[in-house]
Design brief:
Layout lengths: L9 H6 L2 H17 L4 H4 L3 H4 L1 H16 L3 H22 L5 H22 L5 H18 L8 H14 L5 H14 L1 H14 L2 H7 L10 H10 L3 H8 L5 H6 L9 H11 L2
Helix pairs in contact: 2-7, 2-10, 2-11, 5-6, 5-16, 6-16, 7-8, 10-11
């Protein structure tokens, strides 16, 4: 069977561990809130009512593509495009192409920054590998103006960060919802985690300091993983309502999970 991402790819290493994926989730949750097109995420009302659930759905969907066969991954990508087209028809306007690219760019950036925070620095070739996977996702979706290589993508990413982010009433409300659903202590942990992976432009708009209280904790956490004690920290810091989803992040979808792709994509992106 041909897979969308090769079994030995660093992309599978990145998306195959719950802690790395949770930092991807943390960074994306900050940048999502600042995107000028975030009103689209409010259109159905599902994001503000369950922001953590929606972000877990998006992350879970991306993981399914990473661990699927080419045919299954393409089906999932095609279905995602169709669902967004339906939302556009219901609203009577089109989601800007740059907004689709922004989401894709988040997955690229936070895949790299989260892995480098918790594991090790990626080589230029590995970064290119990460970019290529999501480039193929974007190409399948029909996105335009995607740079062909990681190096050519970097200035485009910076341009998007400058032009497409702003702090708005939606931003404030979304962070308010994060705090409501997480609780004050876990919300503080989220903020400190975001500081470790978001780019400077996001820090500037959210008025984040460069120092994170989690910075000295990360080395300790790495040791706890070696001692198989990381589950204890996760149980303390993460909401019990989402523990099943979090535990599933450590389980790579199997080769017989193709039938789950069709139902999961429709549910997660509706």
């Amino acid at each position: 069977m041909d897979y969308f991402v090769e079994k030995k790819s660093v992309v599978r290493k990145i998306w195959g561990k719950s802690d790395t994926v949770l930092f991807i989730f943390a960074g994306a949750s900050a940048e999502f809130a600042l995107n000028k097109a975030v009103d689209w995420l409010y259109f159905t009302g599902k994001l503000p009512s369950d922001p953590l659930g929606r972000l877990f759905s998006t992350v879970g969907y991306a993981r399914r593509i990473v661990f699927s066969s080419i045919d299954e991954a393409n089906y999932a990508i095609d279905t995602m495009r169709k669902i967004h087209t339906t939302v556009e028809q219901n609203r009577g306007t089109t989601i800007p192409d740059w907004a689709y690219r922004d989401v894709l760019f988040m997955l690229i950036h936070y895949s790299i920054s989260a892995y480098e925070l918790l594991e090790e620095k990626l080589s230029d070739a590995e970064k290119e590998e990460v970019y290529n996977v999501f480039y193929r996702v974007g190409s399948r979706m029909g996105l335009k103006e995607l740079p062909p290589t990681y190096i050519e993508w970097l200035p485009v990413r910076n341009m998007h960060l400058t032009e497409n982010l702003q702090k708005s009433d939606y931003s404030a409300d979304l962070f308010k919802q994060y705090k409501k659903h997480l609780g004050a202590m876990r919300f503080k942990v989220l903020i400190e985690g975001q500081k470790l992976v978001v780019p400077d432009r996001v820090k500037e708009l959210l008025q984040f300091s460069d120092f994170s209280l989690l910075a000295p904790v990360v080395p300790v956490y790495k040791i706890s993983r070696l001692m198989k004690m990381d589950w204890l920290l996760k149980n303390i810091l993460l909401p019990s309502d989402y523990k099943d989803q979090i535990n599933e992040l450590d389980v790579q979808p199997g080769k017989n999970d193709g039938h789950l792709i069709k139902t999961a994509v429709a549910k997660d992106l509706s």
